[in-house]
Amino acid sequence: MSVLPWPAGRVFADMTSACQSPLNTGVKRIQRGLHxxxxxxxxxxxxxxxxxxRGCRTLGPEDLAxxxxxxxxxxxxQLYDAPLAGTxxxxxxxxxxxxxxxxPEAWRAGDVFFCPDLLWDGRGAFVRRLPPGVVKVGVFHDxxxxxxxxxxxxxxxxxxxxxxxxxxxxxxxxxxxxAEADLLHYWRKEGLRPAATRVLPWPVPFEGPxxxxxxxxxxxxxxxxxxxxxxxxxxxLLDACEMLWSRGLEFRLRLVGCNAYPGHSARVRRRITALxxxxxxxxxxxxxxxxxxxxxxxxxxxxxFPSLLEGFGLxxxxxxxHGRPVVAGTSGALGEVASGGGCEPCxxxxxxxxxxxxxxxxxxxxxxxxxxxxxxxxxxxxWPDYWAALCAALEERP
Length: 398
Known about the structure:
The chain is α/β, with parallel strands linked by helices. It has helices spanning 16-20, 26-38, 61-67, 84-92, 94-97, 123-129, 144-147, 154-166, 177-190, 234-246, 262-277, 290-299, 314-321, 332-338, 351-363, 365-377, 383-395; strands at residues 11-14, 44-50, 55-58, 112-115, 135-140, 171-174, 196-199, 221-225, 252-256, 282-285, 302-305, 326-328, 343-345. Strand 8, helix 10 and strand 9 form a beta-alpha-beta unit.
């Protein structure tokens, strides 16, 4: 680990989301991958936000059990990707966590507070209280909560809160060009002085060598990895698949994704149940661990990612890393990830367009294999590359 480049001081990395839940959603997967890269370095100190005590704390064994890649089992309310569970846990543990809280004197000039987490919970005030000389580095994921307008509900308010908090950082790394444009737009709209920004896309989050082998055209299996949220567009995907099943095409659709809002999650689950009762080959797993996720990518013929709004689109990258083509849109942040090859374009807002793109990869083996070859030729950034780019950017004058 000593070969990693390193800033002048210690790095306090905020791993809150991955310490609160065993789920394998995007931010949590990224934090676990980053932790796996940095652990063992003497300058690395993972921390978590304690919302009821309004400060950062060091991690205990229960946090590290969730943070280490591998994934624990999830059940009940744990299958909902929501911040309330973490807030409740902070109140429940506040007495024991008080001993782990980092006092102001724990921070030194030259230290880095690196926050690859969502900032919906008031951490902005904490960042502004950090001692002079501590370098504050944030990550901006997306402005989906604001871009969805009134439909986002409380998510819009929380998203705006996080955007305001990022203005208190010294540097902000945006995971896509679209995310950076959105961040700058909303800072201007709020009348906030912008921090220095840089686009630094996420690397592929898997450890170890890239899988080898050709595609699996004969597998007749599609995979979609995304939590059950409205803009993830599951209902249109199910409409598109029903069009193809009605035409006599035989294939299986596997969905992997936890719940988000209960109402929409229930609608998607009811539709899946109705299709399954009619004999359609569709199933949903709410949570899988790292090994099962790899197996799902390996076993499918290709993946679909019909999301309407993303800050990045990590499942596209994961699928291509496994050599599996992806049916996806071509605009915004999704287009940034998909443009390097291996993706079959579609309009995800139109079920007919989505069905046509899926049908092409199910029926045209030559086209399918061409997409597989494109995916195999794509270069991928790994965690050491990402960290080296981040450290190099920190050396530059804002």
